[in-house]
Amino acid sequence: MISVKSLNLIFLGPPGAGKGTVAKDVVERFGVPHISTGDMLRDAVSAGSALGKKVQSVMESGQLVSDDLLYDLVEDRLSKKDCMNGFILDGFPRNVKQANDLDKILNELNLNLSAVVFLDVSEEEVVNRISSRRVCPKCSKVYNLISLKPKNDMLCDDDGIELIQREDDKPDTVRERYRIYVEKTAPLVKLYTNRNQIVTIDASGPVDKVDEIVFNTLDELSQ
Prior knowledge:
Blueprint: E1 7-12, H1 19-30, E2 34-36, H2 37-47, H3 50-60, H4 67-78, E3 86-90, H5 96-108, E4 115-120, H6 123-131, E5 133-135, E6 142-144, H7 171-184, H8 187-194, E7 198-202, H9 207-221
Parallel strand pairs: 1-3, 1-4, 2-3, 4-7
Antiparallel strand pairs: 5-6
Helix pairs in contact: 1-9, 2-3, 2-4, 4-5, 6-7
């Protein structure tokens, strides 16, 4: 783990860009927490706090968590001790309003955004990556027919069950997810570009190559 000055980061990119994978590697190298929207929601519910009970109520009713509730969640999470030396936000902000909300949170916590890391991949690459995923229906182990193939044809390595393709991973569904990303989240790229805060990384290559570029970029930022 490398000791650096505070790295306060946002990871942006379409579904399938590898945000979670690269973030995990950045965590191991730089020692900053990876904070995803899903993690925040689950942690809040598990904690059983007043905020967590609100989240649980919304989720159990089948509704989407509001921007106001997400604001409270992010503010609470970024105020934790483990974020003192930096963080990676993944999944927030998802739109311009949430970006403005984040500005307010960082200002209240006296924090500055170091950079927005934009992992850029094309729609066709996204469709190719995600539609190549296969899952074991028994143990839920995830494979990829391009980068993480099962040892024996289409069978799970662990229990020999035939792998399946989830509905969310089928090409038509992936294209719809990409369309929503372009509509809702892509405008953030323009916003942060105008602020000179964005770093664009070509994420179409192998993970180790993408990691190397990201690491070099963050090394420069942490000087």
